[in-house]
Amino acid sequence: MRALIISNPKSGTSETMLGEVIGTIESLYEEITIKKTQEVGDALRFSSESGPFDHLIVIGGDGTLNEVVNGLMTLEREERPTVGIIPAGTCNDFARALELPIQPTQAANVIKSKHTQQVDVIQVDEMYALNFVGIGLIADTSRQIDPDEKESLGSIGYFLATIRQFREADPFEIRLYRKDELLYEGDVSFLYIGNGSYLGTVPTKLETQSFSDGLLEVVHSSSIGFPMIRQLLAQQLGLDQKSPEWNHFQASHVKVELSQSQIIDIDGEHFESEQLSIQIRKNAITFLTP
């Protein structure tokens, strides 16, 4: 077997961590190739050339993993190697969703177990994601987080940014379609379209959540301020979540039309758009899991 390791030193990966991982898994492979990222786009390029390998091992955070997924999706399904994750970022949301250990050696032992799980991938126009697409409050929170807070406080920094954005969130107008059926038209404070089960280290706790059912989880809300905080707390505490201002449904394909251009967040990557076509690619990538 052959393995390609993509390591992102900027996400906190040290030579010691890399050595621990290699020492744990080296007996599995006849050949291990190591690629270290230096700039944005490296992980995408490396993964797009990973077809000859059996396993692709990612040492990094959610941003590195997002690039890897976009690179893998340029390959034919049968050419994509099985992916192992060694979490090394701030949030590691998708690693949490797969219930992977955060400690590097323990995560590497998961690779040795060879247990796999096929996972759906979100396609957003010509881009791909594992976790979520966010507009409004979600996108504003991740974009406005203070870099020093992220570095020193980790996931708490995301919580502080969310609280700040609650005070400043402005509703925006959308038209939301399930395939060609108009489901909602009006103002919302946020739109979440997800596949993963964590957002900024916080579990989404959607009852229908699944990585491999071929369906997106779509949540939107028109509430702002205290009503939104109350609803989010109710969701996290497992209380009654019914609210006329809070809507959740599933779909394999949704279209979003915005009255004006908005910041779109795809797994932490940002761009502006007035419309999106979002669909699920069922069982597109295989991961090594506990």
Automatic annotation (TrEMBL):
Cofactor (UniProt): Mg(2+)
Domain DAGKc as annotated: residue spans: 1-128
Keyword Transferase annotated: yes
The UniProt record lists the keyword Kinase: yes
Record key words, sorted: ATP-binding, Kinase, Nucleotide-binding, Transferase
Pfam families: DAGK_cat
Highest taxon above the source species: Bacteria
Gene Ontology molecular function terms on file: kinase activity
Protein family per UniProt: Belongs to the diacylglycerol/lipid kinase family.
UniProt protein name: Diacylglycerol kinase family lipid kinase
Native source organism of the sequence: Exiguobacterium marinum
